[in-house]
Design goal:
274 residues; alpha+beta; seven-stranded antiparallel β-sheet; two-stranded antiparallel sheet; 6 helices
């Protein structure tokens, strides 16, 4: 096939999903969101605090690469990511956990294709406490850690920002090459999910600066948004646990397409889980 490849707590209940773009969604999101942690952005790393309730919160502490308290810059591409986002379909705002970039080698030259940032619902940390005290290297090499992160009943979103013009088919083919080996015996459900995913990119020009959001609402549901800014609606919903996990594994498995992203996320999580 040409395609993509338990938590004791209840699955997250997310807000109603906006209609697909061709349905003229009425819910609109602002182009810039207030950062719920803006009063706490004073230092150099993430940490975790417990509120008076049982919910977990990040205290986002700004690194030296950040220009201001609302954005963080990916150093290799100079792309700025907001430190907090509200996205279609998510129950609450998501916080930036790490950034990286994707590079392709042509002949002997490495060419940067996109920057990427992983956002998570801060409450996800409550599902990762058994790794408390682990080093960044331990976290980065531990596949069960990232599998637990994927299975946690809280939203996660990967923002991809293109740093050069890319044909939609070329983008999909590169993604397909990474995901296909992760699904060995696709079912009709998985083939349908892959077909839906493919149609988003076929025949589409992706210009420099285009945003692509892959948002995991839960293990079996992922929203895809392609836009020239922050999205106000969705392009498609992918419904297949095997397909959505295959895509997560592309970025956080044994051979990630962006080692810098996985390393950045691992470093921040090691700080949070000290």
């Amino acid at each position: 096939m040409q395609g993509i490849g338990a938590i004791s707590k209840p699955m997250c209940v997310y807000s109603p999903i906006p209609p697909l773009r061709n349905s003229n969604p009425t819910n609109k999101f602002p182009t810039k969101f207030p950062n719920p942690f803006s009063q706490l952005h004073k230092f150099s790393h993430f940490s975790v605090q417990k509120s008076k309730t049982t919910q977990t919160h990040f205290t986002l502490k700004v690194s030296s690469s950040v220009r201001d308290t609302e954005t963080m810059e990916e150093p290799a591409t100079k792309v700025k990511f907001q430190t907090s986002l509200s996205l279609p379909g998510c129950s609450s705002s998501l916080s930036l956990l790490g950034t990286g970039y994707r590079e392709k080698v042509f002949a002997i030259l490495g060419v940067k294709v996109y920057a990427a940032g992983l956002y998570v619902n801060p409450s996800i940390i409550s599902e990762l406490n058994k790794w408390k005290g682990r080093s960044a290297a331990d976290i980065q090499e531990n596949l069960s850690f990232f599998k637990s992160m994927f299975e946690a009943p809280f939203e996660k979103s990967l923002q991809i920002v293109l740093v050069r013009d890319v044909d939609g088919k070329t983008f999909w083919d590169a993604l397909d090459d990474a995901i296909s080996p992760r699904i060995r015996a696709p079912t009709p459900v998985e083939e349908s999910a892959v077909s839906t995913f493919r149609r988003i990119f076929q025949g589409r020009s992706l210009n420099k600066g285009t945003f692509i959001f892959l948002t995991w609402l839960e293990p079996s549901k992922m929203l895809v948004c392609v836009s020239n800014g922050l999205p106000s609606g969705i392009d498609a919903m992918i419904e297949s646990t095997d397909v959505t996990f295959a895509l997560f594994d592309v970025f956080f498995g044994n051979a990630p397409v962006s080692p810098s992203l996985k390393a950045s996320v691992s470093n921040e999580l090691a700080e949070i889980l000290k």
